[in-house]
Design a protein that fits this description.
This protein is mostly helical. It has helices at residues 6-14, 21-37, 46-59, 82-122, 127-141, 150-168, 176-187, 193-204, 221-237, 246-255, 258-263, 275-293, 300-315, 320-338, 348-375, 394-402, 416-423, 435-438, 442-450, 456-463, 475-481; strands at 214-215, 298-299, 407-411, 427-429, 467-471, 486-491, 495-500. Strands 4-3-5-7-6 form a five-stranded mixed beta sheet, sandwiched between helices. Strands 1-2 form a two-stranded parallel ribbon. β6 and β7 form a beta hairpin. α3 crosses α4.
C-alpha cells in the first residue's frame, strides 16, 4: 500500500471538498461570459452574418455572387464564413436570442477549457496560476466575444496550440488537425493560422542552435516526417470548401488591401493612448520582462510563437486575441519558475483553522459569482428586443417597414447588415460590412458621400437611391436638409431618412 506524507493525505482527502481560489476564478470567468453575451447586440456585422446564414440555410446553396446589395448585385462574392453563419442562424432559429447566447457560452466554455489545459501544461499543473492567466486572457479578449464567426477562430486556434504542445511532450493527437482544418476553412477566413502554428513548431525543431540560454529540441526523422505530412494534409484540407482553391488566396487579398486595413477599426494598429491598449502593453512588457529575467532557458518554439503573434498584434487590433492565447502559456512557463513551491500543507495542523476560513470565503465568492450570473441571465425575449437602439437605426427601419419604403437604399456603412436582416429582400443596400466585396469601388465612393466631398451630387445621381438612411446630425444630414431635391421623412436621435422629392432628380 502506498505511503503518503501528512500533507499529501490532507490534499487527497480534501480534494473533492475544498473550494480553492481557482474555482472562484472559474466562477468569475463564467460570470463574465454571461454578462458580456447578455448585453444588447451592438455588433453591426452580426446582422449580415445572420442574414447570410438564413439565406444559405433556406436556399441550401452557398452563394458565389452578391445577392444583398444593389451596387454589387451578381458580382463575385466569397462567402468564406458560410458554415459559421449557418450555425448562428440555426441557433437563432431554435432559441431566438437565447439560442445565440447559449451557442456563444458553449464556444467560450470550450475555448477556455482547452486554454486552461494548455496553461496547465506550461505551468507544471499550477492550477491557481493557470486560472489567473486564464482570467487575464478573458480580460484581453472579451472585446471579441460577439455573435460572430471569429468565435470559432478562438476555439480552433487554442485547440491547435494544445495539440502541438502535446506533441512536443510526446503525446500524439496530430491526426485531428487536418480534420479540424476542414471545419476551420468553412468557419472563418483565419484558417491559415492552423498551418502557421504547425509550421512554427516544425521549424523550431529542425535546426540545431547552440546557445547557453536556449533549449532547442530537435525533432527525430520520424517526427519531422509526421509533422510535414500533417502540414501538407492541413493545406490540402483547405480545398474542401464551396470556394475550392480560391479560399487559399482570400486571406492574402484581405491583408494586402490597403483600403481595408486603413478604414476598418479592427484592422488598425493598437492606439496605445487608449486605456485598454495601455493595459495590454503593460501585459506584454511584463511578459517580456519575465522571459528576459526568468530562471528558465528559452524554448526556441516559444520565441517563435511570441515574436510572430506579437508582431501580428501590432499590425491589427483583431490579432491581440491570438497573441494572448499564444503568449499567455509561455509567460506562465516563466512565471511558474519564479514562484516558491507551495509548502502550505506541510503543517496543516497549524493552519487548519486558517484553511477553513479561506475555503469558506472561496465558497462564498464562488456561489456569489454563479448566483449573479444566473440573476443577470438574459430574459426569454425576441432578438429584436436585444438590439442596441442607440447604435442601430431601430426606429428608422420600423418606419421604412410600416410605410413600405422599399427599393434601393443608400445607407450608413455600419447599418447595412441590420437593414438587410430586417428588410431584405424588399430593400437592397448600397453597402454593408462585407468590406472585401466593396473595397475596390463602392466603399471609396461611399466615403466621398459620407464626408461630403465635391463629388457628392454626382455620386448621389450615380447610385440613384430610393431612400437615404444616415446618422442624425452628420454633415450629409445637414447638406440634404438644405437641398431642395430631398425631403426628410423621418428623424429620431439616431437616424434620419430622406427620400427624393421628384424621382430621378435627387442627385442633380
Amino acid at each position: 500500500m502506498a505511503k503518503y506524507t501528512n500533507g499529501e493525505n490532507y490534499r487527497r482527502i480534501g480534494m473533492g471538498k475544498r473550494v480553492e481560489l481557482q474555482h472562484v476564478i472559474f466562477a468569475v470567468i463564467f460570470l463574465l461570459f454571461v454578462m458580456v453575451n447578455g448585453q444588447p447586440v451592438s455588433d453591426t456585422d452580426f446582422w449580415w452574418h445572420l442574414k447570410a446564414g438564413e439565406y444559405i440555410w433556406q436556399t441550401k446553396t452557398v452563394p458565389h455572387a452578391d445577392v444583398f446589395s444593389y451596387t454589387m448585385s451578381d458580382k463575385p462574392w466569397t462567402a468564406h464564413e458560410w458554415l459559421a453563419e449557418v450555425i448562428y442562424y440555426l441557433a437563432y432559429s431554435l432559441g431566438n436570442f437565447r439560442g445565440l447566447f447559449v451557442l456563444n457560452l458553449l464556444l467560450l466554455a470550450l475555448t477556455y477549457y482547452f486554454y486552461y489545459q494548455l496553461l496547465q501544461l506550461r505551468t507544471g499543473k499550477n492550477s491557481i496560476l493557470s486560472a489567473l492567466l486564464m482570467l487575464a486572457g478573458a480580460f484581453f479578449t472579451y472585446f471579441f466575444w460577439g455573435f460572430r464567426p471569429h468565435m470559432f477562430l478562438h476555439l480552433l486556434f487554442v485547440i491547435f496550440f494544445y495539440v502541438m504542445e502535446c506533441f512536443y511532450r510526446n503525446r500524439d493527437y496530430l491526426w485531428i488537425l487536418p480534420l479540424l482544418m476542414i471545419a476551420w476553412v468553412n468557419l472563418h477566413g483565419s484558417f491559415i493560422m492552423g498551418p502557421v502554428i504547425i509550421g512554427l513548431y516544425l521549424i523550431s525543431g529542425i535546426f540545431a542552435i547552440q546557445l547557453p540560454t536556449l533549449v532547442n529540441r530537435l525533432w527525430t526523422p520520424a517526427q519531422k516526417r509526421k509533422l510535414l505530412a500533417v502540414l501538407l494534409m492541413s493545406f490540402l484540407a483547405t480545398l474542401i470548401n464551396p470556394n475550392s482553391y480560391h479560399m487559399l488566396f482570400y486571406p492574402l487579398q484581405t491583408v494586402n488591401s490597403d483600403f481595408i486595413v486603413n478604414q476598418i477599426n479592427e484592422w488598425a494598429s493598437p492606439d496605445f493612448h487608449e486605456p485598454y491598449f495601455m493595459v495590454y502593453l503593460g501585459y506584454v512588457l511584463a511578459g517580456f520582462a519575465l522571459m528576459g529575467l526568468g530562471k528558465r532557458k528559452h524554448r526556441a518554439v516559444d520565441l517563435l510563437l511570441v515574436g510572430t503573434f506579437f508582431l501580428m498584434s501590432l499590425y491589427a487590433v483583431r490579432h491581440i486575441a491570438l497573441f494572448v492565447y499564444g503568449a499567455g502559456p509561455v509567460f506562465g512557463y516563466y512565471l511558474a519558475a519564479l514562484l516558491p513551491k507551495n509548502s502550505l500543507y506541510k503543517h496543516e495542523h497549524i493552519f487548519n483553522g486558517v484553511l477553513t476560513v479561506k475555503h469558506f470565503i472561496n465558497g462564498a465568492l464562488t456561489v456569489g459569482a454563479l448566483t449573479t450570473a444566473f440573476l443577470v441571465w438574459p430574459p426569454e425575449v425576441p432578438l429584436e428586443k436585444h438590439v442596441e437602439a442607440q447604435v442601430l437605426p431601430v426606429g428608422a427601419v420600423n418606419y421604412m417597414k410600416q410605410h413600405r419604403l422599399y427599393g434601393k437604399v443608400l445607407n450608413d456603412y455600419n447599418w447595412g447588415g441590420y437593414i438587410l436582416w430586417t428588410l431584405y429582400p424588399d430593400v437592397r443596400v448600397m453597402i454593408d460590412g462585407r468590406t472585401d466585396l466593396y473595397a475596390a469601388k463602392v466603399f471609396p465612393d461611399y466615403l466621398k458621400i459620407a464626408n461630403l466631398l465635391p463629388q457628392t451630387p454626382q455620386l448621389l445621381q450615380k447610385y440613384y437611391p430610393d431612400a437615404i438612411i444616415i446618422r442624425e446630425g452628420t454633415s450629409l444630414d445637414a447638406y440634404l436638409s438644405n437641398y431642395r431635391h430631398w425631403q426628410k421623412v423621418y428623424a429620431d436621435e439616431t437616424a434620419v431618412i430622406y427620400t427624393p422629392v421628384v424621382k430621378g432628380r435627387h442627385g442633380t
